[in-house]
Task: inverse folding
């Protein structure tokens, strides 16, 4: 059996082995055991099993679907710049943490459907274009975070309604001022709330982000970490989590 996926989690086991989790092309997360996966040893072998690497792996046998043993592996892609930029590295870790809160574990290839494939493309594009932006020296972390969260929420089918006030159904685009409530992911008109913050810009950027292709990430300008934070809060609320449960969250949103 052959799998391709992005390494999203790794734990050292025994002296030189690893247990890794890969986000597979199907959008599922599979767990794999890698003998000697830490590299090193007498020959100081480098390891291919670093966070964010895209790998193709061949399995030894397929008796156990709980933990599959890697026989051979090839590195398909590795980020060139991300590991040298602390914010980009934190973002990568945050994406992987968020992903593991909702992704379905890989069970058996016979039952794999393609309904989760969008998740793989969201995550792989996020990593690829973040690395590219670092190479081009136009990396703006809040831009990448917002774009990732908008694409992710869209693929999960839980985008906030950006068209109508969630209480009175007034059209929001015509209004000068709107408010956002992350707890339920709703935009509301000024008649229906006492909030003083005008979040019309945020609303327009969600619409924009939804239409922006990943390679055009620079088009999503003006976004802030606070907006990324609101999208994370909304995600967490939906999955009954607290943002503090995401370890990388506090490092990013200082
Ligand atoms: Zn209203």
Result:
């Amino acid at each position: 059996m052959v799998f391709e996926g992005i390494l999203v989690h790794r734990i050292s086991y025994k002296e030189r082995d690893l247990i890794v989790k890969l986000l597979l092309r199907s959008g599922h997360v599979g767990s794999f055991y890698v003998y000697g996966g830490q590299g090193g040893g007498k020959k100081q072998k480098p390891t291919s099993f670093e966070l964010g690497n895209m790998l193709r792996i061949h399995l030894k046998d397929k008796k156990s679907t709980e933990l599959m043993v890697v026989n051979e592996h090839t590195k398909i892609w590795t980020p060139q710049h991300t590991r040298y930029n602390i914010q980009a590295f934190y973002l990568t870790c945050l994406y992987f943490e968020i992903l593991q809160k909702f992704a379905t574990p890989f069970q058996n290839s016979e039952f794999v459907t393609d309904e989760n494939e969008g998740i793989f493309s969201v995550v792989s594009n996020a990593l690829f274009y973040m690395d590219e932006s670092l190479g081009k020296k136009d990396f703006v972390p809040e831009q990448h975070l917002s774009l990732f969260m908008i694409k992710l929420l869209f693929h999960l089918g839980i985008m906030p309604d950006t068209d109508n006030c969630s209480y009175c159904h007034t059209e929001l685009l015509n209004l000068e001022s709107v408010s956002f409530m992350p707890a339920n992911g709703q935009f509301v008109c000024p008649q229906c709330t006492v909030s003083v913050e005008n979040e019309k810009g945020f609303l327009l950027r969600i619409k924009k982000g939804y239409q922006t292709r990943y390679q055009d990430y620079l088009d999503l300008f003006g976004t802030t970490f606070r907006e990324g934070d609101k999208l994370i809060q909304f995600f967490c609320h939906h999955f009954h989590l607290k943002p503090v449960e995401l370890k990388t969250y506090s490092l990013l949103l200082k």
User: Anything to note?
Assistant: The helical segments are 86-102, 117-136, 141-155, 200-211, 225-238, 249-252. The first helix runs from residue 86 to 102. Strands lie at 2-13, 17-24, 29-34, 54-59, 68-77, 179-181, 186-188.
